[in-house]
Amino acid sequence: MHCTRIDPDTMCPPLECPVHKQFSAPDECCKFCPGVDYCSQGHDCHSNASCLNLETSYACHCNAGFTGNGHQCIDIDECTSEGGLEGHHCRSNTKCLNTRGGYECECLPGHRRVDRFNCAEIDECAAGTHECHVHALCVNTLGSYHCTCKEGYSGDGVHCLRTCPAPCQNGGSCNEDGECACRTGYTGQDCSLDLNECEAGIGHCDLSTQCVNMPGWYYCACRQGYVPALTHLSPTLCIDVDECVIGNHTCHETADCINVEGGFRCQCPTNSTDCRLSCVINGQEVENGGVIPRGECEECRCVDGVVHCTPISCDCALSPAVHCCPHCYPTATSCVHQELPHVIFRSGERWIYQCQTCECLMGEIDCWEVECPPIWCESAVLSTSDCCPRCPSSCPANTTCPLLYQPHVWAPSCASCNCRVPFCDLLVSNNGFCVHRMGSYHAAMVGIVLLQHQPRHLQLILLLLAVATVVRIGR
């Protein structure tokens, strides 16, 4: 060890204070001036350290939350230990979260802050801050809650729907009373039964059409003696067929055929002496009043040249044929619905099941695919619970619908024309009408007089003549 003596007069730094204010410190060779700010004169302390002035120099100390020699300071992770100067002091229902130079006590989910170090549980059910449905029960849990739908409802508790004793079918929904609200066209406790609008008398078909029941709805088909009119204005619009003109009648050649709505009648010419009001069927003459052999379950007679058929009289006391009078044998000929054992059908009765028409035939069920009616609109809709596409109603519920056609009365001709499948508008521009032909439309010339203004007995003739001459008008 080598030591060198320090000469205070030559080796100590000069002092700025007067000599009488200079002091000597124990174990220090050089004197000093008290109150000098050495930190402001420059230091090498770390950015996370503080500079402290001493009597003759300065010192570096790491800030709270950091450790080191003052020249190098690193962050202390208080969350790794609990208590003391370098540990955390988080208490119940909290989680320690380390920060630069310190830490925070974060509340656990479902808790609220009490002070810096403590949190208390939140009762969302009591506070009304839950998201349970109005028909659900809120149950508070540690740090959270859960929802349970009340009896009579189903769901996840946040969304609850009324439940019915049996699932609602065919698009039905369960209402607040716990009963199935069926779509129009369906009925029953679970909406599983088709409402037969035709039998219920709520099918709105005019006299020229007959009601045809479909699963969930119905349509109107032309009766015998009528044919569909070539117009989209009403898909159920039917016009009378003149059987006398087209030769589809049974009058004897000596009698005159008189067309009537939906049929015809035979009449003897005035002062005729050899007129016969018999019926001519396939070239065979049947006397007036004579029996005409037809089906076993109906009786047909010639009445003044016209064939009239009526079902046979079913007198169960006389034990009639089973297939003609099945209601006389309910035990042997009844059928049970495929899924509803309490629903019984008699022989001859029909119902709709899974888009099939089913019929009870002598105790056995025969089903076939539902025959869909023709589509008269451009954008038919097939709903989830429907078997056939249907056209949107042009007459909404609870509204007054214009009557487009009455016997012998036509509505005014249209102002604008647009062809539609399979029916078409009347073409006012050339007095024609559209005929659908393999992906395109043609306009058939009718002459200078519109078809709709012609007498009834000429309408069919004009229709046939109109199809003979066609002019392409494009799609």
UniProtKB/TrEMBL annotation:
GO CC terms of this entry: extracellular space
All residue ranges annotated as the EGF-like domain in the record: 35-74, 75-120, 121-161, 162-192, 194-232, 240-276
Pfam families tied to this protein: EGF_3, EGF_CA, VWC
Disulfide bonds: C164-C174, C182-C191
Matching Gene3D superfamilies: 6.20.200.20, Complement Module, domain 1, Laminin
Coiled-coil annotated spans: none
Gene Ontology molecular function: any one: heparin binding
Protein name according to UniProt: Uncharacterized protein
Organism whose genome encodes this protein: Nezara viridula
